[in-house]
């Protein structure tokens, strides 16, 4: 038994009859907050370069994955387990890396991205909008970057209206200053950005609707 097998067995034991009552009562929905918290703690460990904390938080995120897979295995209508998750993910990664596992060529990272996106489009051929698959509950700055990329795919040219600092530290200070200035005026910077993103999303959909058939 590998240590990963052992962790899977621990999870199964906790949720089995006679195991932990709290674990047995959980649902996918009730666990969402813990998945978000554990992911945030992992990000913190990565960004602070704390290898000890990273090892612990990776384990906590992995445990959340195992928890959801174990729940799915016991939930009527879902019926998949961690082996199915691993199998599907391996197949996806092989399919999206034909330059490694197939005959495609990709000489650099930019070419890899092109191969990845092309394969993804083939897999998701039923999608009708560049916005399909974008989780709108992403953190607002990450969502903004994602939407700008999707806008380009919809044929929208998004040009900056102001200059920004050349390095990320200065950019971070500028963003923080914007939040401080907004707060001083009683404005909610997060809500303002998310409102702007909703308007931007509508603009992208309008651009898609106006494309010739």
Characteristics of this structure?
213 residues; mainly alpha; Helix Hairpins; 2 domains; 10 helices; 69% helix; globular; nucleoside triphosphate diphosphatase activity; NTP-PPase_MazG-like_N
Description:
By secondary structure, the chain is mainly alpha-helical. It folds into 2 domains: 80 residues, MazG-like (Helix Hairpins); 80 residues, no CATH class. Helices cover 69% and strands 0% of the residues. The relative contact order is 0.06. The model has no long low-confidence stretch (mean pLDDT 91).
Based on DSSP secondary structure assignment, what is the total number of beta strands?
0
* Measured distance between first and last alpha carbons: 56 Å
> With helices defined by DSSP (H or I, 4 residues minimum), what is the helix count?
10
- Categorize the overall geometry: globular
Number of domains: 2
The largest pleated sheet is described as: none
Structural class: mainly alpha
Instruction: Please name the CATH topology of the largest domain.
Output: Helix Hairpins
Architecture of the largest domain, according to CATH?
A: Orthogonal Bundle
The percentage helix is 55-70%
Order of helices and strands: HHHHHHHHHH
Q: Return the CATH class of the largest domain.
A: Mainly Alpha
Question: In terms of topology, how is this protein built?
Answer:
Layout: H1 3-15, H2 21-25, H3 28-47, H4 51-74, H5 82-95, H6 98-101, H7 109-123, H8 140-153, H9 168-184, H10 189-209
Keywords: Hydrolase
InterPro entries: MazG-like_dom, NTP-PPase_MazG-like_N, NTP_PyrPHydrolase_MazG
GO molecular function, one term: nucleoside triphosphate diphosphatase activity
């Amino acid at each position: 038994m590998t240590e990963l097998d052992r962790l899977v067995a621990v999870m199964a034991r906790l949720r089995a009859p006679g195991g932990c009552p709290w674990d047995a009562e959980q649902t996918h929905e009730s666990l969402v907050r813990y998945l978000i918290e554990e992911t945030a703690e992992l990000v913190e460990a990565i960004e602070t370069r704390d290898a000890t904390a990273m090892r612990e938080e990776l384990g906590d995120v992995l445990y959340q994955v195992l928890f959801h897979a174990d729940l799915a295995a016991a939930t009527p209508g879902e019926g998949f387990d961690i082996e199915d998750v691993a199998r599907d993910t391996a197949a996806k990664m092989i399919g999206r890396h034909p330059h490694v596992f197939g005959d495609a060529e990709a000489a650099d990272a930019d070419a890899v991205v092109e191969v990845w996106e092309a394969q993804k489009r083939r897999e998701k051929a039923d999608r009708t909008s560049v916005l399909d698959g974008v989780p709108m509950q992403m953190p607002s700055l990450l969502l903004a970057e994602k939407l700008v990329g999707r806008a380009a795919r919809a044929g929208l040219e998004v040009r900056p209206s102001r200059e920004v600092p050349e390095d990320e530290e200065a950019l971070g200070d500028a963003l923080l200053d914007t939040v401080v200035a907004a707060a001083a005026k009683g404005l909610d910077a997060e809500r303002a950005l998310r409102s702007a993103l909703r308007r931007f999303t509508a603009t992208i959909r309008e651009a898609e609707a106006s494309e010739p058939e």
